[in-house]
């Protein structure tokens, strides 16, 4: 495989990217990745307005996640090939354009196509993360990944309440128009704040993409961590796609109230810095077992809302989100140490696989919820991380 060397226009100080750059990256990642989740609490509104069948309604969310996985495989690797500022600017401009199409979509086919493209272009978040993490020395990389991932998770979780409030006040289309404006502002801000990074690669684009299969085959750690997180993210997607339907149907909540419920999960972001420091301290294996177990426990608690009421749903959301976030950070901290020259491709593979898991979870939600109800959703959602937990327990610790 051809060698890839990295050059920066300006040398970075030994202490890393700097707090300002890290915080800017965290805020930008949150704003970008929120695009994947605005539709989640609005599925019924969008489906009814655009004539999408009830059994296909969750495809609104699943297609965005599939698009994100595609973007991670065909666009995120460009971090190892293309100058950083230009790459981020073009990708965010494409995201803004796709959001405009979604906002004015006349029918379900156009909206679903736009959803796929929104997912592809929102991969800018996963271009930014390895760029900034790569500026950090090994000893503090977990802390920086945790900080940026906190911003990313806040974006995921705030997307739902914001979408609900905006939809109630101005209609669901307004949310996508507002996000298009936000992407344009983010592109300008990142161009000013993020240092230019110019990879000096001898690879063609075809060679770069082709090398990803080799990387996946070469690193069992990458395969293992990606599959663990794919099951966790499937459970996460199942919960956050089905819970709005549960709250609207069983509890009679409005979209604004459903959106505010999602704020409960924002407490999961508080685990991010702790998880990053745990990884830096060498406790990745024990942290992984706890995080995956939390994912299964969260879904189980949510399934008991018929006994525990809203408290079960609320506690389940918090525990699930903390587990998903912690396992994500522990996994990224581990894979970023595999190959510095291929960090963009490795991160792209990792997140693409986990988002495919999320897409499977989203696609399963509507048929499972329709035929087996909320209990069926909880059982399927808990079974996936339980399978990962068994595999993690059987994993032989590295010596």
Present the secondary structure layout.
Layout: E1 4-8, H1 19-33, H2 43-50, H3 59-74, H4 84-104, H5 108-121, H6 124-133, H7 141-170, H8 172-193, E2 197-201, H9 205-218, H10 220-250, H11 255-261, H12 271-280, H13 284-303, H14 305-308, H15 310-335, H16 343-394
Antiparallel strand pairs: 1-2
Helix pairs in contact: 1-6, 1-7, 1-8, 3-5, 3-16, 4-5, 4-6, 4-8, 6-7, 6-16, 7-8, 7-11, 7-12, 7-15, 10-13, 10-15, 10-16, 12-15, 13-15, 13-16
Plain-language structure description:
By secondary structure, this protein is mainly α. It has 16 helices and 2 strands. Helix content is 75%, strand content 3%. It starts with a strand and ends in a 5-residue tail after the last helix. The protein has a two-stranded antiparallel ribbon with strand order 1-2. The protein has one domain: MFS general substrate transporter like domains (Growth Hormone, Chain: A, Up-down Bundle). The chain has helices at residues 19-33, 43-50, 59-74, 84-104, 108-121, 124-133, 141-170, 172-193, 205-218, 220-250, 255-261, 271-280, 284-303, 305-308, 310-335, 343-394; strands spanning 4-8, 197-201. The model is unreliable at 1-14 (pLDDT under 50). The longest helix has 52 residues, at 343-394.
Rg, alpha carbons: 20 Å
Per CATH, what is the topology? Growth Hormone, Chain: A
Domain tally:
1
Describe the largest sheet. 2 strands, antiparallel
State the helicity in percent bands.
over 70%
What is the CATH superfamily? MFS general substrate transporter like domains
The CATH first-level class comes to Mainly Alpha
Q: N-to-C terminal Cα separation, in Å?
A: 28 Å
> Which shape, going by the Cα principal axes?
globular
Q: Strand share of the residues?
A: under 5%
Number of helices: 16
Q: Mean pLDDT across all residues, rounded?
A: 84
Give the topology string: H per helix, E per strand: EHHHHHHHHEHHHHHHHH
Q: Under the CATH scheme, which architecture would be assigned?
A: Up-down Bundle
Briefly note the structural class of the backbone: mainly alpha
What order do the strands of the largest sheet run in, or round the barrel if closed? 1-2
Query: Uncertain runs with pLDDT below 50, 5 residues or more?
Result: 1-14
**Record field, number of beta strands:** 2
């Amino acid at each position: 495989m051809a060698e890839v060397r990295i050059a920066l226009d300006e040398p970075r100080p030994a202490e890393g990217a700097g707090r300002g750059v890290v915080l800017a990256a965290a805020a930008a990642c949150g704003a970008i990745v929120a695009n994947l989740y605005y539709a989640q609490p609005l599925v019924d509104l969008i489906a009814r307005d655009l004539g999408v069948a009830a059994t296909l309604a969750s495809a609104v969310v699943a297609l965005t996640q599939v698009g994100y996985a595609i973007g991670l495989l065909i666009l995120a690797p460009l971090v190892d090939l293309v100058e950083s500022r230009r790459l981020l600017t073009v990708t965010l401009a494409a995201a803004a354009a796709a959001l405009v199409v979604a906002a004015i979509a006349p029918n379900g086919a156009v909206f679903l196509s736009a959803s796929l493209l929104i997912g592809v272009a929102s991969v800018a978040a996963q271009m930014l993360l390895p760029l900034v993490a790569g500026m950090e020395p090994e000893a503090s990389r977990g802390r920086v990944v945790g900080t940026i991932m906190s911003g990313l998770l806040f974006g995921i979780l705030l997307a739902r309440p914001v979408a609900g409030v905006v939809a109630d006040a101005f209609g669901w289309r307004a949310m996508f128009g507002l996000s298009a404006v936000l992407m344009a502002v983010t592109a300008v801000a990142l161009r000013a704040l993020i240092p230019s990074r110019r990879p000096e690669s001898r690879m063609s684009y075809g060679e770069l993409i082709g090398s990803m299969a080799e990387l996946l085959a070469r690193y069992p750690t990458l395969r293992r961590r990606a599959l663990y997180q794919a099951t966790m993210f499937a459970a996460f997607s199942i919960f956050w796609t089905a819970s709005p339907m549960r709250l609207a149907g069983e509890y009679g909540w409005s979209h604004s109230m459903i959106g505010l419920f999602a704020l409960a999960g924002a407490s999961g972001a508080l685990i991010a810095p702790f998880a990053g420091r745990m990884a830096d301290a060498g406790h990745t294996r024990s942290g992984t077992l706890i995080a995956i177990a939390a994912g299964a426990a969260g879904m189980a608690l949510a399934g008991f809302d018929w006994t525990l009421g809203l408290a079960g749903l609320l506690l389940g959301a918090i525990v699930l989100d903390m587990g998903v976030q912690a396992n994500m950070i522990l996994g990224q901290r581990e894979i970023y140490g595999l190959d510095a020259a291929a960090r963009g491709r490795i991160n792209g593979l990792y997140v693409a696989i986990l988002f495919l898991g999320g897409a499977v979870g989203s696609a399963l939600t509507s048929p499972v919820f329709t035929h087996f109800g909320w209990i069926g959703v909880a059982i399927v959602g808990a079974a996936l991380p339980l399978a990962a937990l068994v595999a993690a327990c059987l994993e032989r610790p590295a010596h």
